[in-house]
Amino acid sequence: MNYANVIEFVKEKIADNGRPPNYPFRDRFEHTMRVYRWAIKLQAKVGGDLDIIALAALLHDVGWEEGRDHGEVGAEIAVDYLDSIGVDPAKIGRIGEIIRIHEDKDTTDDLSLECQVVMDADLLDEVGAISVLWDSMATACEEGANYKKAYYRIKEYYKGNKPKIRRCKTEVARVEFDKRMKMLEEFLFQLEKELF
């Protein structure tokens, strides 16, 4: 499988799908590439079909249409694209299903290992050091931005994200998530000492 061609397709689709960014600095393609890299790292530790994991991670955010579930739209686009490049139909069906449900992180359904890996990679992308950047940059976009506002935002999102460890489907992801939460605790402790 030539992932370079898939990456080019994903880059074009994300650029053209009309999904409004949460923030001007939020780049959906960069997010996709981080999820892809995390999915590969997780797969190396827990197993699963590498092609299914890699393709689902790359294509998980290609879809967007106002008023429709983004996973559903993405699954349709992915299935059509993968069929056009000759991917095995059995794999296409599994990839489409992962993309369709990837946002339902609280599901208690029995998920394939491949789906668990992609969901975990997507979840891990938005916690940890990257969330400090996100919260700081989001605060900078607001009126009256300052260090204390950024601190309170980081702390608020840390508190909101900490219980999301329950969403991790694999033990490897739980360990990584916990490590990131501990890093954020230490960061907030140090930031409090410097700010107050």
Characterise this structure:
It is a single chain. This protein has nine helices and no strands. The model has no long low-confidence stretch (mean pLDDT 95).
Major β-sheet, in short? none
Radius of gyration: 18 Å
Number of helices: 9
Order of helices and strands: HHHHHHHHH
Give the overall average pLDDT: 95
Structural shape: globular
The amount of helix comes to 55-70%
Summarize this, please?
With 196 residues, this protein is mainly α.
List the helices and strands and how they pair.
Elements: H1 3-16, H2 28-46, H3 50-59, H4 70-84, H5 89-101, H6 113-124, H7 129-140, H8 147-161, H9 171-195
Helix pairs in contact: 1-3, 2-3, 2-6, 3-5, 3-6, 4-5, 5-6, 7-8, 8-9
Key words describing this protein structure:
196 residues; mainly alpha; globular
